[in-house]
Design goal:
- This protein is α+β, with helices and mostly antiparallel strands and 363 residues long.
- Helices cover 41% and strands 34% of the residues.
- The protein contains 6 helices and 11 strands.
- Strands 3, 4, 5, 6, 7, 8, 9 and 10 form an 8-stranded antiparallel beta sheet that branches.
- It starts with a helix and ends in a 5-residue tail after the last strand.
């Protein structure tokens, strides 16, 4: 009995300690659970931070790429503008080069064109035409051997000859050709196409050191002797001249171009208009004019078909020049063979060549 009472007497204290331990254990478990929650939340926040950092880096890269793209765009736009400017500059240089080539070496640029000699004639009909020039082209057309040019009086005759294309020409004309009574040749007919100037622009420049001397006398002396006398006269200051740098005759003219070595000499002479110059035993009143140099700045050509002229080719060299010419003219003059009145005929035998000159048809 005594032991049981002793045990029961200790029971409340023991129970109080056990409950305290269990409470502490529960608190510990709660603290441990809270710690785990904090650790888990910390890990989640760390992962969110890393993810946010990665997104921020991606956004920075995207912004940099956009800025780079914008920079590339602006650079490309600037380069495009520069290339357009360079293209325009090259086009202007090309146009200037074309004009220079046309003005200086038209034959080299267009080797297939016949040689053209242009004659300018001033024509003043009224005040409105004061600044106009009439262009009269003289076109030199190369004529190969074994060919002929036939010009008819009527264009419809030439057209019919061209449309027929091939013609058989009988050569049994003339008493000296009796043995060739049945001899015939076949020739081909084709139109004649020429390139004529349709638009011409010339830039004129007046030289400050050059004069044009005209009204020169014909004294039977050489051109070089006459140039010496002119240079001697115009190089003296008492004659209002100066040192002569160059002198030359203009092509196909009796005019002389004198160029002085310095400015201020030509203008007073041009203002005088005329000057007495001793040449040989006499004095001659020479005309002094300004010298203008011209440059072709624009020349446009258009094809033109000669309405009354026909080109004959494939003519064999079986007769003399005169006999073949007569045979061709007789054949193409007969209406029964589709011909008509022949206005002109030029024939070049095989193995030779010639040049035909075309002028403006005013008929």
């Amino acid at each position: 009995m005594d032991s049981e009472e002793a045990s029961e007497g200790l029971s409340p204290g023991t129970r109080g300690s056990g409950e305290l331990c269990r409470a502490l254990e529960q608190d510990h478990e709660k603290i441990q659970a809270a710690k785990e929650l904090v650790d888990q939340r910390t890990r989640e926040l760390r992962e969110e931070g890393e993810l946010l950092h990665k997104k921020l880096q991606q956004m920075c890269l995207t912004v940099e790429e956009e800025q780079s793209c914008q920079m590339d765009f602006f650079l490309a736009k600037e380069e495009n503008y520069r290339l357009r400017q360079e293209k325009q500059l090259l086009k202007r240089k090309l146009e200037e080069l074309k004009k220079k080539v046309i003005g200086e070496d038209l034959v080299t640029m267009l080797p297939a064109l016949p040689e053209k000699k242009m004659v300018f004639k001033g024509l003043v009909t009224n005040k409105g035409d004061m600044n106009k020039l009439v262009l009269t082209p003289l076109i030199r057309y190369p004529l190969l051997g074994g060919s002929a040019l036939v010009t008819f009086e009527k264009a419809e005759v030439a057209q019919g000859i061209v449309e027929a294309k091939e013609h058989t020409v009988q050569l049994s004309f003339g008493e000296e050709l009796e043995e060739l009574e049945r001899c015939r040749v076949r020739v081909q007919a084709a139109p004649v196409d020429l390139l004529l100037p349709s638009d011409l622009e010339i830039s004129l420049t007046r030289s400050s050191r050059t004069i044009l001397v005209s009204n020169l006398p014909r004294l039977g002396i050489s051109d070089e002797a006459l140039l010496d006398k002119l240079e001697l006269f115009f190089s003296k200051t008492k004659n209002e001249g100066g040192e002569v740098e160059s002198r030359e005759f203009l092509d196909d003219s009796s005019q002389v171009v004198l160029t002085f070595a310095r400015d201020g000499v030509a203008e007073p002479l041009i203002a005088r208009g005329h000057i007495q110059v001793p040449i040989g035993k006499g004095k001659y009143n020479l005309k002094i004019s300004p010298c203008l140099s011209g440059e072709v700045t624009n020349l446009q050509l258009q094809p033109h078909r000669c309405p009354r002229t026909v080109l004959l080719s494939g003519i064999p060299d079986v007769l003399g020049t005169e006999a073949m010419r007569d045979a061709l003219e007789i054949h193409f003059q007969k209406a029964s063979r589709g011909g008509g009145e022949v206005d002109a005929l030029a024939y070049v035998p095989a193995g030779q060549w010639g040049v035909a000159v075309f002028e403006e048809d005013v008929g």
